[in-house]
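Q: I'm building a small set of examples for a reading group on sequence design. Run inverse folding on the following structure and report the sequence directly after it, with nothing in between.
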């Protein structure tokens, strides 16, 4: 029995260690081309204990063609260093400033393909290769906030100097998320490396998914992206790191969606862009045409292979009721690719505000996210027409806050994309009367549990339940 107990304990520890593994992130940033990269870096540092940052590389872009500015990265890191001792009072694992400083590198001060080819290596491209060569099988998520030519040079060098087998092994680790193309090396990368995992909204910026992070949407409350909200919740009265968050010039944090999906919140799964996340939802296909519009001058080229790109959601916001059931669906419905991102916007903005509070407040003063739990496994198998339930038993909150629950189906994600109705309120912690659809082949349904505390600001975390429906 003691041996069996030991085995079970070791297996449990191994499972927990696996679940606790952080996503590896390497950033390419044209910081100083626009204040938004500095804004995005401030936010990223507040999640640096939950994400394994592997590099912060200053690059060029179509908006900043002939210089790189690693000094600004270091200035923001110095401000982070002043608040790091307070951050660790709230969650463990925030890295020391000195460790992050060692990750600051720079690409060549050349635009696009001018910086790609023989003799065009830089400390930035060398660092990308070094990170990929580490004995670590986890993917490396390369979050591109400017032009990707430093990555293009790393890929060029890998192909030129490595065996085909080794090059394939290194490239297979790469996951690129760039909001839009910001130099001409982006199209080259996708053509030359057709199997490379690549998320992008090519073409005009205003048709891209990422634009939803900073664009007001008619018919909803846009308060959490307002300049007033930013001043009160981020910039002023939040210590030296908040003071480093610059005013909006062109658009707030346009590059932030390029890393939101790697934050572990129960919803995000960066290996499954089509499942939807704080960073939006994307599907793998080759666009027949690409939207025209503002690109900063980067040529719009026809895609030669499938990419992870814009997908549409249909969504009706859930709004508060003053009397009776606390929430209801709004009467307005939205359908487009931008919905896939802004539907989570209040959640990730509130999360940002809470973490900024952590830089100056004690644990007792600040709010911390709830911890959702399920009274069953995260994957359920039922038969056609069977009644089944969903249960959030065991959900807790570290601050002892009162909790609100919301269950909803994500029909665009499962193979069965019709709405499943049931007789109970969606804001119960359990829903026990869901009838599986009648199917003649195996189908999948995705249900999301959203748990929100009543702290200030209100914070949300999620659980995803995948239901497989088998025919009788």
């Amino acid at each position: 029995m003691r041996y069996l107990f030991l085995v079970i304990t070791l297996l449990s520890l191994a499972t927990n260690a696996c679940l606790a593994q952080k996503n590896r992130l390497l950033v390419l940033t044209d910081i100083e081309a626009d204040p938004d990269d500095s804004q995005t870096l401030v936010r990223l540092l507040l999640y640096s204990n939950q994400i394994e940052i592997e590099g912060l590389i200053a690059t060029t872009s179509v908006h900043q063609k002939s210089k790189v500015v690693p000094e600004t990265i270091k200035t923001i890191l110095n401000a982070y260093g002043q608040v790091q001792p307070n951050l660790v009072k709230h969650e463990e694992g925030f890295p020391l400033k000195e460790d992050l400083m060692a990750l600051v590198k720079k690409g060549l001060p050349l635009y696009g393909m001018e910086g790609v080819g023989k003799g065009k290596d830089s400390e930035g491209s060398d660092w990308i290769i070094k990170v990929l060569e580490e004995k670590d099988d986890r993917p490396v998520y390369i979050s591109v906030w400017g032009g990707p030519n430093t990555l293009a040079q790393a890929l060029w060098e890998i192909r030129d100097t490595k065996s085909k087998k080794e090059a394939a092994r290194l490239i297979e680790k790469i996951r690129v998320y760039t909001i839009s193309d910001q130099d001409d090396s982006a199209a080259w990368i996708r053509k030359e490396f057709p199997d490379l995992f690549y998320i992008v909204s090519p073409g005009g910026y205003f048709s891209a998914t990422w634009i939803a992070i900073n664009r007001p949407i008619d018919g909803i409350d846009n308060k959490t992206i307002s300049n007033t909200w930013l001043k009160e919740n981020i910039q002023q009265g939040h210590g030296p790191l908040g003071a480093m968050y610059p005013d909006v010039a062109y658009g707030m944090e346009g590059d932030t969606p390029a890393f939101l999906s790697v934050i572990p919140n129960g919803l995000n799964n960066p290996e499954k862009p089509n499942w939807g996340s704080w960073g939006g939802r994307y599907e793998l296909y080759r666009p027949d045409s690409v939207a025209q519009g503002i690109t900063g001058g980067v040529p719009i080229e026809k895609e030669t292979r499938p990419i992870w790109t814009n997908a549409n959601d249909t969504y009706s916001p859930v709004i508060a009721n003053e009397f009776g059931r606390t929430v209801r669906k709004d009467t307005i419905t939205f359908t487009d690719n931008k919905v896939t991102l802004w539907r989570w916007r209040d959640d990730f903005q509130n999360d940002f505000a809470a973490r900024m509070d952590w830089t100056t407040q004690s644990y007792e003063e600040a709010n911390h996210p709830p911890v959702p739990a399920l009274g069953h496994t995260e994957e359920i198998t039922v038969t056609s027409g069977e009644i089944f339930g969903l249960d959030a038993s065991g959900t807790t909150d570290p601050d002892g806050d009162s909790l609100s629950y919301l269950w909803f189906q994500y029909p665009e994600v499962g193979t069965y994309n019709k709405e499943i109705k049931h007789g109970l309120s969606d804001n119960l912690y359990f829903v026990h009367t869901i009838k599986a659809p009648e199917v003649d082949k195996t189908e999948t349904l995705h249900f999301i549990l959203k748990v929100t505390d009543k702290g200030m600001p209100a914070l949300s975390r999620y659980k995803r339940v995948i239901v497989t429906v088998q025919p009788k």
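The longest strand covers residues 443-453.
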